[in-house]
Design brief:
- Helices cover about 30% and strands about 25% of the residues.
- With about 375 residues, it is of the alpha+beta class.
- It folds into 3 domains: about 100 residues, no CATH class; about 90 residues, TruD, catalytic domain (Pseudouridine synthase, 2-Layer Sandwich), CATH 3.30.2350.20; about 140 residues, 2-Layer Sandwich (Pseudouridine synthase).
- Helix 3 packs across helix 4 and helix 4 crosses helix 7.
- The chain is globular.
Length: about 375
């Protein structure tokens, strides 16, 4: 994977993230309240050092239901403290003693019945509280934060979407070349990774075209209404449209690839097609899997952004819409080192070295 274009230039500041799990806190924002009735149980859970799948398995065993009856709105990292919602379908049974499920790594904050299944993506967003440590130039970081608050960041899909060292992309291409993948969750993961990579490449190329007046506007741009998935084609950029863009009423977009006609037209469609011309295998693979053309905003603007500086540590608070990545905000702020990721890589390297040392001669 090639390095993606920065909106304000590559940051000169360095910092550490995830020194402790408490340095990366995420709270899901549910757009509704449980209605108190129905066969679905909604659990609000805080977890520390567990991934979403592990918690879902614990819920399944505790409630004595099939794993497929446990759902969640979004995946959350293991190396973080996160508050998220889980849904459990338990028809015709009494309410389990959910509070008894709490342990050192997981606490049940609240629970209630609900009439509908909790589905993937059923969030309005996430609130983040992040601590950056060993910041090399705190004042330069504050200056960059002010830029981000005003102009946003590229809405890139974060590196976690692609797996360690881009492994999900490798497996996706193998799948497109004929390798069978029966596990539906894995297929979905690989398809999502490829679609995200194509989106990132178009965004990166578009940012590389920007001039002194900002992003170069193209005839035929597919423009999205802010806060909505609705879009329209800007056949020409008149002063009214430019004004709406400046006021952040509308925003530029890039493609989430799939079958069907490109949603951008004219010059914009030609530009996007030229960027993705070398991705024939990936484009055709997504189309054969039945995905259809969609759009995603090109820029991401953190909401309710605030920060507190304490020596060489900075605590950062902001909200992002569902599907947006905090790491995409961080990469525009600083050259960061993920301490937990580095610890994992060291542990893997040490284990591999030990296995090699213990292997019989000749293997």
């Amino acid at each position: 994977m090639t390095e993606l274009t920065y909106l304000y230039g590559k940051p000169a500041v360095s910092a550490d993230i995830r020194t402790h799990n408490s340095d990366f806190q995420v709270k899901e924002i549910l757009p509704f309240l449980p209605d108190g009735e129905g066969e679905h149980h909604l659990l609000h859970i805080r977890k520390d050092g567990l991934n979403t799948a592990q918690v879902a398995e614990m819920i399944s065993k505790f409630a004595k239901v099939h794993p497929k009856e446990v759902t969640f709105a979004g995946q959350k990292d293991k190396n973080a403290i996160t508050e998220q919602w889980f849904g459990v379908r338990i028809p015709g049974k009494d309410t389990p003693d959910w509070a008894a499920m709490s342990n050192e790594q997981m606490q049940v904050l609240s629970f209630a019945r609900h009439g509908k299944k909790l589905r993937t993506g059923a969030l309005s967003g996430n609130r983040f509280t992040l601590v950056l440590r060993n910041v090399s130039d705190p004042q330069a970081l504050v200056t960059r934060l002010e830029q981000v608050r005003d102009g946003g960041v590229p809405n890139y899909f974060g590196e976690q979407r692609f797996g360690h060292d881009g492994g999900n992309l490798v497996k996706a291409r193998q799948m497109f070349e004929g390798r069978k993948v029966k596990d539906r969750n894995k297929r979905s993961l690989y398809l999502s990774a490829v679609r995200s990579e194509l989106f990132n490449q178009v965004v990166s190329a578009r940012l590389a075209k920007q001039d002194a007046s900002g992003l170069g506007l193209l005839e035929g741009d597919c423009v999205m209404l802010s806060g909505s998935r609705s879009f329209f084609v800007a056949e020409t950029w008149d002063e009214t449209l430019k004004g709406r863009l400046a006021e952040k009423d509308i925003q530029l977009s890039a493609p989430l690839w799939g079958r069907g006609e490109m949603l951008a037209k004219g010059d914009a469609a030609e530009f996007e097609a030229s960027v993705l011309a070398s991705y024939e295998l990936e484009r055709s693979g997504l189309e054969k899997e039945g995905l259809t053309q969609e759009r995603r905003a090109l820029l991401l603007r953190p909401e309710q952004l605030s920060f507190k500086l304490d020596g060489d540590a900075l605590t950062l608070d902001f909200c992002l819409p569902a599907g947006a990545f905090a790491t995409s905000v961080l990469r525009e702020l600083c050259e960061y080192s993920d301490v937990k990721e580095l610890e994992w890589r060291r542990a893997v390297a040490e284990r591999q070295a030990q296995e090699a040392a213990n292997a019989p001669v000749g293997e």
